[in-house]
Amino acid sequence: MDVFGQFGTFFGSIVSLLADPRNVVILFGASFLGIGFGALPGLTATLGVALLTTLTYGLPLETALIALLGMYVGAVYGGSYPAILVNIPGTAASAASAMEGYPLAQRGEGGRALGLTTTASFIGTAIGMVCLVMVAPLIAELALQFTSYEFFLLAFFGILISGTLTSGDLVIKGWIAGLIGLALSTIGRDRLQFYPRFTFDQPALDTGLEVVPVLIGAFAIPQIIRVLRDELQLGEPKKVRRILPEIRTILYNLKHIVRSAMIGVGIGAVPGIGEDIAGWVSYGAAKNTSKQPEKFGKGEPSGLVSTETANNACIGGALIPLLTLGIPGSPPAVMLLGALMIHGVTVGPMITFDRPGFITEVTAILLLASAAMWVNGMLLAPQVVKVLRAPAALFMPVVAVLSVIGSYALGLNIFNLYLMVPIGLAAYFLTEWKYPISPLVIGVILGPMADENLRRALMVSRGDPTPFFTRPVSLLLVIACVLLVVAQIPAVRRGRQRLFARLTRPRPTEADQSTPERRPAPPVNEGD
Amino acid sequence: MDRERLRRTDLWTGLGLAALAVAMLIGASRFPISASYGGVQNVWYVSPALFPLIVGFGILALSMVLVVTAARSLGRDGLRQALSLPKADFAPRQRRFAMIVAAIIGFVFAMVPAVDFFLATALFLLVFMAAFHLPDGTGLLPNLTTYLVLVGLTIAWRATGLGEVPGLEYVLDVLILIGIAAALWVNWRTTAGDPLSRKRLRHVLWMVAVTPTVLCILFRYGLLVPLPHEGIVINLMEAARYAMRG
Amino acid sequence: MNQLCSAASVLALVAGTATALTVAPTFAQDYPTRDITNVVVWSAGGGTDVSNRVISEQMAEILDVNINVTNRPGGVAGSLGMSYVYNQDADGYTLVGLSESCVTAAVQGGWDERFDVWYPFIVGGSPDLISVNADAPYEDLAALIEAAMADPGNIRAAAGGAGSIHHLNLLALMDGTGAEFNFIPYPGSQPSQTAAMTGEVTVVVTSLAEQQQLLRGGRLRPLAMLTPDPFDLADVGTIPSAFDSFPELTEYLPISQAIGMAIRADAPDEIKAVLSDAFVEALATPAVQEWAESNYYVLSGKTGAEASAEFAQLESLFSWTLHELGAAERNPEELGIPQP
Predict the structure, then answer these.
(1) Residue C164 near residue C240 (C-beta atoms within 8 A)
(2) Which of residues 281-300 of C touch A (CB under 8 A)?
């Protein structure tokens, strides 16, 4: 099908979908529900899509897809609400949004932050969608460049970058937090050989630590304690401004938006990782290319816009390998694959022959979903900001109960509650001592991926690490990791200030930059 | 926290983490390194010990760097000061911290697994909100005491194992219901004679009535999530639903 | 505030009596009167989950109650969900959605019960087949086996996780032909197939349902079905049976998937009968038939003694294979599981 034909079908499907008033109701309802799922700690996009799969079983395929994608888009966006307003990311995807969003809300600009988030999320989803329709086959081929070598390095890079960016104190403490997360992730049976590691003969530990209780414990509990202990007020209720799309700020940040959307689509397309990493990587990219990197962490709109664009662009990215290869690109996409199977659609390379026009239709639904999200968001945000006026003493206990039921809801496992509390307390003390918490959570999420792929990569090459440096994508990732570390060495930092930057400094050349224990321990600079 | 105090805590956490890393390395070194396990030919690079060893060494190395950095920036005098034990601190801030931690731990470990989720949540919200919402911290101690007593009671009841006996399933729920009444009474008395306190207590009571109801209905019927413990109230809700449906 | 106190105790009493009255014992004759919960032991979106959702939907219509499908993954081989359901009353209101891999929960140390505590209903499954990367030089199974014999242990093969049904199929193929592959474990079928597509491994054994899109799209080349019958796949042609070129495989194969659901074996017979009838009727509905056909599932519909026998056979096969691989926590002999 040529491009014009595609656009024809595209607008045709939009019109026919909107012609049925039931579709419109379901679209807005699902999007609204999705925002709720994203906003409540512990309710994730995955759970929401799973739930709607059951409820939409009896509906026609396109109506079901409207509900499912509306939920998915809404949930990824909704996670930013609690991140911005109370510094508790509703999903791991929005952890990076809290970095800039919460300071903004504390300055009394919570309404503005939500408005920016809404528009950035919409643009992100829309760009993801354009990629889905225009260059899907190309990106799918790119995703196939990722084998065990690249997966390991990607996981390692994700932890490294979030450790580097989140440290308010010494950079090394961010890396330590990431390593603690990795250490926690080794608990349970290892996924290659089922050998029980650090389980202390507790069957409950056999499957390892689940991400949701760790996420909730690590973010919600320290924040509950901090706010109530110091009798803090939530944000500043005085000047909740009018919420506008803020076209000017968006235009001003156009380069950040385009770059973040590309990062989001790319990372979304790589199977197994998704919104959480995309947010951090694009945040890092925004900080490194910004003219005023010192403003980051103190409420810089471009940082917020970047993360939100990227994590929503991920959705389109994640759908690309799902639809063209049958490989889900992110955890909610796994659930979406199941939902499609229930409706008798098997996605994969043959989808364009089995169901011509299906990809275009999905794209149209994605556009509708993001439009519904934008409208809902613009209507909801002014109301949601009012939460900040509630006394913290009434609000935080409710957050505590939500955290408890949220940790329980996904696996229906009471052990997850027992896990959440100690993790939360440990996270509280770590934040008191100025260790950032996000790298720890990212470490728990990506740990199994790093572990498994490192060993499998070595298995494939029979113990030979050279493919890490000879495969093109792999080499790029190695270079990115090395640059990230080298840039933190004080001498290099000074050099960079003199504009010669990294080039003047010879990179350490010995092999095995990829394994942390062989890397020369980097000197630490005093925090700034 | 000022930088010097931060470096002092760095010194301690660095040492603590190094100790944990050593424990992790010892644990990992006992994993099979070359024996075949799980039908996979085993060599060093396949071993389940590989990754924990790398991570353990990583933590050890970085925490040592942290200790050295901290020691260097503290200097000799600072170092001596850091090694002496910090003074205990019982400021109101610390009391509030204790209340939060006690409430959360009691709720999760004692109440949620054994008490009807509606009742457990209502009680938790009542004491937690009253402790912090009543003006000038007047609610803190009475509510902390009440909650600790009830948590103790729950633990004691669970220890007897009588809850498993048919016919006695709802005894604990009834006890907690009485406990809620007691907590209400305590707070009513605490706020006596002060209109502002009474007003705030009324806010709390509203929240206590609404939140568990909404949550239980939402999760039980909206999200189809069975609640952690379904006792007297939730079973009553369930019975009412079937009665209505006929 | 004595009024408050006494009001609360009165309320407690009323509530207590009301509950005692309403939760009267339900009789098996009028089963089902309440909603049924189906607890799937694998996570949402997988084959077991999807099958259970599809069948439950039809059974709900037949039984005229709701069947709520929830997921309780975790533990070892689904042990968390299984022990949860096993601890509920045997009143037929809690089903467990499971698959053949659950039979290993006991030997892997997940729980202490053998599989015969369940009364299973088997939906069926999709047949396994062996395929290779599209650029691999092997045009048929004989060529691949010949190459593997010439270079033992050097051709990389993926088949889900260690101890999975696909791994067992691969092992049976290796035993039956004498060829030796280098087995690389992946956490599931999908990553295994992706690895075969990228060329990280050459050979992949997974089910037809999981592979069909990739086969038809030319991303993978099918070599042979690991079942006695060949299969006609649209756009690809006939995939021959491995048994044609290697007749001695009949001793080891087929090992088929058994996705299904179960209730406690000690439930009343009336309830078992009601559920069995509803189950069989549900499988015959056009909706399920159509779903099975478009997803390359072979429906089984076994219930009762037949289904129990199939699971008993799978239990002995899986348990002893895992034991031989050294991946079993407990000796199957201790648990009283007979040798296959």
Answers:
(1) no
(2) 290-291, 294-295
**Domains held by chain C: number:** 2
How many Cβ atoms from other residues are within 10 Å of residue B41's Cβ? 12
Q: How many CB atoms lie within 10 A of CB B57?
A: 19
Q: For C124-136, how does the pLDDT look when each residue is reduced to its tens digit (9 = 90+)?
A: 989 999 999 999 9
Strand C298-302, strand C36-40: pairing? unpaired
Domain that residue C156 falls in: 128-251
If contacts are CB pairs under 8 Å, which of residues 76-105 in chain B contact chain A?
93, 96-97, 100-101, 103-105
- How confident is the model over A126-168, as pLDDT tens digits? 888 888 877 777 777 777 788 889 889 988 888 888 888 877 7
Q: What is the pLDDT of residue C22?
A: 44
Q: Using the beta-carbon criterion (under 8 Å), do B58 and A421 form an inter-chain contact?
A: no
- The answer as to whether C240 is a domain residue is yes
Residues C120 and C136 reside in one and the same domain: no
Locate the domains of chain B by residue range: 3-83, 92-245
Per-residue model confidence (pLDDT) at position A234: 66
Model-level ipTM above the cut of 0.85: yes
Task: Tell me the shortest Cα–Cα distance from B245 to chain C, in angstroms.
Answer: 10
B193: phi > 0 → left, psi -120 to 50 → alpha, else beta; which? Answer: left
For A447, residues 6+ apart whose C-beta sits below 8 A from its C-beta are A155, A181, A182, A184, A185, A186
How many other CB atoms sit within 10 Å of the CB of residue B97?
A: 17
* Tens-place pLDDT, residues C294-322: 888 889 889 988 999 999 989 988 888 88
Asked, for residue C280, whether it belongs to a domain, the answer is yes
Tell me which residue of A22, A27, A2, A62 sits closest to A361, measured CA to CA. A62
Query: CB neighbours of A177 closer than 8 A, spacing ≥ 6?
Result: A163, A166, A430, A435, A436, A437, A438, A439, A440, A443
Return the residue in A180, A194, A195 with the most chain B beta carbons within 10 A, the one to mutate for interface testing: A195
Find out whether B85 and A209 touch, Cβ atoms under 8 Å. no
* Partner chains of C (3+ C-beta pairs under 8 Å): A, B
Contact A351 C213 (CB under 8 A): yes
- Partnered with residue C68 across adjacent β-strands are C37
Give the closest-approach CA distance of C247 to chain A in angstroms. Answer: 32
pTM of the entire predicted model? 0.82
Q: With beta carbons under 8 A apart, name residues in chain C contacting A450.
A: none
- State which of C222, C251, C280 marks the end of a domain: C251
- Of B41, B180, B242, nearest to C34 by CB-CB distance is B242
How far is it, in rounded angstroms, from Cα C73 to Cα C78? 6
Q: Report CB contact under 8 Å: B225, A408.
A: yes
CATH number of C78's domain? 3.40.190.150
- Report how far residue A182's alpha carbon sits from residue A184's, in angstroms, rounded to the nearest whole number: 5
B25-64 residues touching C, CB cutoff 8 A: 36-41
- CB contacts of C53 in chain A (<8 Å) are 53-54, 57, 342
Angle at B218 between CA A333 and CA A373, to 5 degrees: 45
> Nearest C-alpha of chain B: how many angstroms from C154?
12
CB atoms within 10 A of CB C298: 16
Annotate B189-210 with three-state secondary structure.
HHCCCCHHHHHHHHHHHHHHHH
